[in-house]
Amino acid sequence: MPGKLRQATHLLRIVRVLAYYNLDEYLVRITPLKPWLFLFHLFPRSKDNAPRGQRLREALQELGPVFVKLGQMLSTRPDLIPDDIASELSLLQDRVPPFPGDQALLILEQAYEEPVSHHIVDFNTVPLASASVAQVHDARLTDGTEVVVKIIRPGLEPIIKRDIDLLFMLARMGEKYSADIRRLHAVDVIDDYNKTIHDELDLMREAANASQLRHNFNNSPLLYVPEVYFDHTRTNVMVMEKIHGTTVSKIDTIVEKGIDLKHLSNNGVEIFYTQVFRDGFFHADMHPGNIFVLDDGRYAAVDFGIMGTLSDIDKHYLAENFLAFFQHDYRRVAQAHIDAGWVPEGTRVDEFESAIRSVCEPIFAKPLCEISFGRVLIRLFRVARRFNMEIQPQLVLLEKTLLYVEGLGRQLDPQLNLWDTAKPFLEQWARREYGPRAFFKEIRRQAPMWWKMGPRMPMLIHNVLEQAGNGTLQLSQPDENLKQLKEETRRGQKKLFHAIVGSALLISAALLAALDGYTPIMAGLAPLSSWVLGGLGALLLFVSWPSSE
């Protein structure tokens, strides 16, 4: 009961904030809440006539870190929400007052279960940055190496649980009573957000992500990933090499250092495509605060809490889509979506192709340097949703990352042409993955398994042929298909039985009617028994007649 009371109190606070910013318009579509909307008139309201997106952003900012991060996530989903709201939510700042440095030292001591000085020294109690989930301090290892120490904010778990439970309740209620909210897949969105925010609370996971990305770009001339010191890292503490670079948004400083902006812009696009198509593992939080430029012109990345992964199948169909897009081959785009299983198998290719063309052709009428390929992708997903495309989490992260990369690239070089940069890379990738070299590489990879299986193949083939010959060969198939096949067979056998019996009764009726010297009870021109047998036979034949199914 106390828990429900706390939840009700928290809900009332949310109502008060929404009322102040005149946001009851978002709740009128949820039927069970309508009788309670009078509560909005009990709270003071702002006289500000700001656009709805701005009002929503300010309300989320006031509601606290969990709602701020939810708004940030929604800002990357313009396939779900209107453009004006998405662009306004992208302005949300994940900044909160820092917790005291003494408390940070206490958390370190509890995490290490020994004096902090055994791990780090010169710990600066004034944080370099403070956000809703964690804050960062600079320090040194005992050997003098400069590091940054990321510490999870204390007391977050109960706050996150309270807010997520409430969001789930509102999402379920909304989906039950509002078609618009069902269309947004509100429960799926909150579920995805729940996983994301809990992943960010596990710094061992983030450390592993950083280590993997560092391995992928080891000795790269394009990207530098700082080293993680696992001996000093725990679930709520991460220690990482400190980098010295310029935030990518400080363009004047980058120019003063003599770095070519056009070259830097093209390198950013190449890094993106390398992560996606070579590694299938990409940094999915590439906003300007997480990207630096080193003095030698390389990029450096930090904050690895959100990473995207792609399977080989995903990579194949994404490359197909990208190349087909740039070549205006919309049928190939539509077919790639169906082949990947992103839209239902029965989707008509011609209708899907026509819908894609109607969205993309007006965009491609512009010069390529003016086209936002991220926006093209968003519009494509909106079209695909009309054809029942299921939400693909990996594609959502990819869409968000592409928007970041494109935005950063155009800040550095307004004439950035994604096609000129991407086309050679994609074509090279296609040759590498599907050319003769890839074929022989796959043979080499499979050879040990074939070598192991080779001696067993003659016996396996013999067993299959022997079972087929004596009728004992059994072919397995999915249980659901098997049940359906059994049911159809049973119905067929039943109908066949009825047909045979019905035909026999009709024949018997005809024979009785034709017998000479037989004096049965008559009913009109035929014996009564003929009428009875014939009627039963006709009924059974009618029951067994094949249906239109």
Question: What does this protein structure show overall?
Answer:
By secondary structure, the chain is of the alpha+beta class. The chain is built from 21 helices and 13 strands. The protein has helices at 2-20, 52-63, 65-75, 83-89, 101-112, 156-177, 179-183, 186-200, 203-216, 251-256, 261-279, 312-326, 330-339, 349-364, 373-386, 393-412, 418-434, 436-453, 457-470, 479-514, 528-544; strands at residues 120-121, 129-130, 134-141, 146-152, 223-224, 237-241, 246-247, 281-283, 291-293, 299-301, 307-309, 522-523, 526-527. Strand 9 and strand 10 (299-301) form a beta hairpin. Helix 11 runs parallel beside helix 17 (418-434). The relative contact order is 0.06.
Summarize the structure.
It is built from 21 helices and 13 strands. The protein is globular.
Radius of gyration: 33 Å
Please tell me what the overall shape is. globular
Largest sheet: 5 strands, antiparallel
Query: What value does the average pLDDT take?
Result: 77
Helix content range of the residues, please?
Answer: 55-70%
